[in-house]
Amino acid sequence: MNIDGKPFRTVWKDPTSDAVRIIDQRHLPFKFVIEDLRQVNDVATAIVDMHVRGAGCIGATAGYGIYLATLEATESRTPEKTLRDAADHLLATRPTAVNLRWAVDRQMTALQSLPPEQWAESSLQTATAIADEDAAACASIGQHGLRIIEELAAGKSDGEPVQILTHCNAGWLAFVDHGSATAPIYAAHDRGIPLHIWVDETRPRNQGARLTAWELGQHGVPHTLIVDNAGGHLMQRSQVDLVITGTDRTTHTGDVANKIGTYLKALAARDNDVPFYVALPSSTFDWNLSDGFAIPIEERSPDEISLMSGLVSPEADSETEVRLSPRDCPAANPAFDVTPRHLITGLITERGICQADESSIRALFPDPT
């Protein structure tokens, strides 16, 4: 992704130091801030407090977190215990996104047969591979999903845009590059296909309004921000041709856990015969879980519902936090919901498009790792 003409990934190793660098997403869209992570605790805080967010980006950041952990462990009197404690600390940060555990387990498996003096070099190689593979997978997702958009465009009058609705942010910021749900959008836009994207605001943290809208604007893709509950209304009026979302965890049988509100979009799409696709790299599959309703659903702070931050005026330099509800009003904040496989038209992966069922998924991925 280019920001003011300069290419960026969401997470990378600083070539001049041991630090891991991230785009601190809390400040977008009003400020573009790069943060240095120097210790495992920095990485854990960045994941929990959503300096980084999105399945792929969390996984890649955790991979680099293990690299930082090896630097701390080799200075410890008990390196094996220090490294294991760091891994456990990272695994406990966010329970729903499976990429986090996948990345940490991959790192620990690669290190288990090595002496501590080789940990840092090996873990940096693995972290870099995780990031590179994530970017490559998302680029492939873009090319496979492009076919869906091309077919829809073929049925349009000249110049009439394909209308796509997306929920939350499954874009470049949610991965290392390209994104999952946005990858086909960027590929189609770059191909010259007329598009218009409906961007769900995505309460409570407004990742659509703050992140997806900013991304699309940076790439020059026409888009309009809507409230979360407008999607069904637009589908009823034939103003949505396609829904594409991302996912934080997908069972090997096709159930999808994604940002809260995704299930309602799938229901509205089914009722209005709108195709509903989910885009994901294979690192987001949970090969051990068959029932989506067994996926742990993260319960986040009620303050994310009761409070909101933004600019109080166009001229303001910094954000202000305001309260939306009575001071003593209780709030519940489940961060994800589960969309059952029967509501999903298909899964767009780096190996192609498949049905949301076990046989189709395993046909594409007979050798899951």
Low-confidence stretches: none
- Count the E strands: 18
CATH architecture of the largest domain: 3-Layer(aba) Sandwich
- Total of DSSP H or I helical runs spanning 4+ residues: 11
Classified by CATH, the class of the largest domain is Alpha Beta
* Structural classification: alpha/beta
Q: Write the CATH homologous superfamily of the largest domain.
A: Translation initiation factor eif-2b, domain 2
How can the largest sheet be summarized?
Answer: 7 strands, mixed
- N-to-C series of helices and strands: EEEEEHHHHHEHEHEHEEEHEEHEEEEEH
CATH fold description of the largest domain: Rossmann fold
Main β-sheet, spatial strand arrangement: 8-7-6-9-12-17-18
Return the domain count. Answer: 2
How far apart the termini lie comes to 28 Å
Percent of residues in helical segments? 25-40%
Please tell me about this protein's structure:
Helix 2 runs antiparallel to helix 3 (79-91), helix 2 runs antiparallel to helix 5 and helix 4 runs antiparallel to helix 5. The protein folds into two domains: 2-132, Up-down Bundle (Four Helix Bundle (Hemerythrin (Met), subunit A)), CATH 1.20.120; 143-364, Rossmann fold, CATH 3.40.50.10470. The chain has helices spanning 40-48, 55-73, 79-91, 98-111, 119-154, 182-191, 207-219, 231-236, 262-271, 303-306, 358-364; strands spanning 2-3, 6-7, 11-13, 20-23, 34-37, 162-166, 195-200, 223-226, 242-245, 249-251, 256-259, 276-279, 285-286, 307-310, 320-323, 336-339, 346-349, 352-354. With 369 residues, the chain is an alpha/beta fold. It is globular and about 65 Å long. The chain is built from eleven helices and 18 strands.
